Amino acid sequence: MSASTPATTIDTLQPVELADGVEIHLRVAGPAVRSVAWLIDLLIFVGVLMLWGLIAGLISNVVGEGIGNGLFLLGLFLVAWFYNVFFEMGARAATPGQRVVKIKVVSVSGAPVRLPQSLIRNLLRVIDFMPAAYLFGLICCLFTRRFQRLGDLVADTVVVYDDAKPAEPAAIQVNAEPHPPSQMLNRAEQAAILQFLERAPHWSDARKMELSDLLEPLTDRKGLGGLTRVCSMGLWLQKGGRK
Amino acid sequence: MSPNHFESENKERWERLQQMLDKVEKKGAKENAGVEELPTLFRQVCHDLSLAQHRMYGTRLTDKLNALAITGYRVLERRISGGWERFADMALREFPRAVQQERGLFWFCMAMFWGPFLFLAIWTPHDPEWAMAILGPEGMISMEMMYGNGTSPMDYMREEFGSNFAMFGFYIWNNVSIDLRTFAGGLLGGVGSIVIMLFNGAHIGAATGYVHHACNPETFYSFTAGHSAPELMGVVISGMAGMRLGLSIVKPGPYDRKTALVLGGRKAFVLILGAVMMTSFAAVIEGFWSANPMAPAIKYSFGAVMWAGTLAYLFLCGRQRDEA
Predict the structure, then answer these.
(1) Of all helices (H) and strands (E), which one includes residue A125?
(2) Which of B3, B47, B60 sits opposite A166 (nearest CB)?
(3) Number of structural domains chain A divides into
(4) Which chain A residues have a beta carbon less than 8 Å from that of B18?
(5) Is A166 in contact with B58 (Cβ distance < 8 A)?
(6) Are residues B67 and B180 in the same domain?
(7) Any transmembrane segments, and where (chain B) (predicted)?
């Protein structure tokens, strides 16, 4: 296990080992963002039913009331139980609401969600909803490592953030000369300094200095001097230990 | 090797994989030139990702490779469902076999449903108080309207074709939803399924008993004979699906509860799918056949055939011949 993923991580990255032996990281989505998606879906759901009611009403007038009523009930059945299944089986594996907040459903293994899984997790939704407003689902989410509600547990699925393209590095020249650190650094420390160098362009100067001040024992100075020193070490490490 | 060196050396390969994945994900199988290279490129990226993680090349690079590996895995793992052939196999072999394998659960759910049914159906003509309490005044009125003493089997037919279809839609919505709720109720340690089965059995039993007490049984039986077999057995089997789920929480056996739930869920899924199939089939009969103005004798024999067929389907279909 590499040091970049310690066992007690506090972020929402979940390691998954693929059959190919490599470990990928899924960013699981929590109850808050899923509630937003659900509210959007609820609005769409109500809209679809109202529209379907209108269409069925029209059919009633033309063909006969029985046909219209029957069609409305069949549509109600399909939409009430299978709204999510329909969208989860689509190419993007997400309902319109989930698409808005950029989350989607996948297997715990990271593979695309399959029809039986999707059916199971959505049929069990009624239990997650109990006793009201998804209370069981919420409690279950909070007590599982991957924010899985009961239906997710049985179907072996998770809701994850859609993998956005990672940002390209800010092309900013660092005003510093490569310089070796004053003492031997272990691998985790080296990685920390390299990451600092990579991410520093996105932060304000005060924040950069606040962090580099923490390294005073290593750099022997505070403020701008310390910051420059940390960058020098980073550049030195980046060049593979050469000037 | 520095991160930048590593990146510049492999960048071209990663970009090629990314383009290929984009193409395959957007256009599907139509655009598949060079696709045979995909597994190799994917494995190389997996290797690169492990290296980058191990050498701690920083989050930007590992995030990028991580995203690439996830997309690659998703594209390679994409499966095409079996279609109709798979469905036929499920309906004709997998489902009845799943019912046969859960013998204990089957008899348990039979008892949970038929127990209260038989008790109330037999007891009510002697002491209608209970049935009246269960059905309520509205239930009693509607029973008398449909099957009352003044009716004959010929009365209860629907005027137009459209009303048949309306009833079909209603039965799908109502009865299949009950099946699905029975299944989901199993997640509460099986308690939900048991409660729904008991209540369902009691309600139908009370209605049957009340017909004997106050209505014309011939009207009632000639209406219900045709669809009763698939509908009532569908209730029992959806109870089995729920209990399978509940038991994997209560009694996970050699697995931890989470694994037991996933495995139990797969078994229960086949059962509930079959139950939904049977109940939908019952809705077709109930909608389009049961209200036909035919002689009771014809309807009773049709009902008998349906019962024999349903039981034979459940217990004879899909049996492995070399089981002994």
Answers:
(1) helix A125-129
(2) B60
(3) 2
(4) none
(5) no
(6) no
(7) 105-124, 187-212, 232-250, 270-291, 297-316
Q: Express each pLDDT in A78-101 by its tens digit.
A: 999 999 999 998 877 889 999 999
Average pLDDT, chain A: 82
**Domain end position, chosen among B33, B57, B77:** B77
- B58 closest CB neighbour out of A153, A165, A198: A198
Q: Widest CA span of chain A, in angstroms?
A: 88
If asked whether residues B59 and B110 sit together in one domain, one would say no
The structural domain count of chain B equals 2
Domain stop point among B37, B59, B77? B77
Q: Is the domain of A72 the same as that of A156? A: yes
Q: B48 with B175, same domain? A: no
Nearest to A107 by CA among A14, A36, A30: A14
Are residues B138 and B47 part of one domain?
no
DSSP string covering B52-118, please? HHHTT--HHHHHHHHHHHHHHHHHHH-----HHHHHHHIIIIIHHHHHHHTHHHHHHHHHHHHHHHH
Q: Do B46 and A124 touch (CB under 8 A)?
A: no
Contact B212, B118 (CB under 8 A): no
| Interfacial A residues in 143-202 facing B (CB < 8 Å) | 150, 153-156, 163-167, 169, 187-188, 190-191, 194-195, 198-199
Convert the pLDDT of each residue in A15-49 to its tens digit.
777 766 777 888 888 889 999 999 999 999 999 99
Judgement on whether residues A207 and A156 belong to the same structural domain of the protein: no
Does some domain include residue A221?
yes
Q: Do B66 and A240 touch (CB under 8 A)?
A: no
Regarding whether B135 and B187 lie in a shared domain, the answer is yes
Measured between beta carbons, the chain A residues lying within 8 angstroms of B172 are 73-74, 77
Contacts of B214 (CB under 8 A, 6+ apart): B128, B140, B143, B144, B148, B149
Do B89 and B28 have their domain in common? no
Q: What is the ipTM of this complex?
A: 0.82
Regarding whether A219 and A119 lie in a shared domain, the answer is no
What is the distance in angstroms between the Cα of B213 and the nearest Cα belonging to chain A?
32
Helix (H) or strand (E) holding B236: helix B217-250
Chain B interface mutation, best of A16, A73, A78, highest count of B Cβ atoms under 10 Å: A73
Instruction: Please tell me the predicted confidence (pLDDT) of residue A3.
Output: 40
The amino acid at B78: R
What are A70's two structure tokens?
């029957």
Query: Quick check: B166 and A67 CB within 8 A?
Result: yes
State the residue range of the domain holding A200: 187-238
In this predicted model, what pLDDT tens digit does every residue of B11-62 receive, in sequence order? 888 888 888 888 877 766 566 677 778 888 888 888 888 888 887 777 778 8
Determine, yes or no, domain membership for A180. no
3-state secondary structure of B289: coil
Domain final residue, candidates A110, A144, A161: A161
State which residues form the domain around B161. 84-323
Q: Report yes or no on A168 lying in a domain.
A: no
Shared-domain flag, residues B68 and B209: no
Cβ separation B77–A69 shorter than 8 A: no
Concatenated DSSP letters of B238-280: HHHHHHHHHHHHH--TTS-HHHHHHHHHHHHHHHHHHHHHHHH
Q: Are residues B118 and B7 in the same domain?
A: no
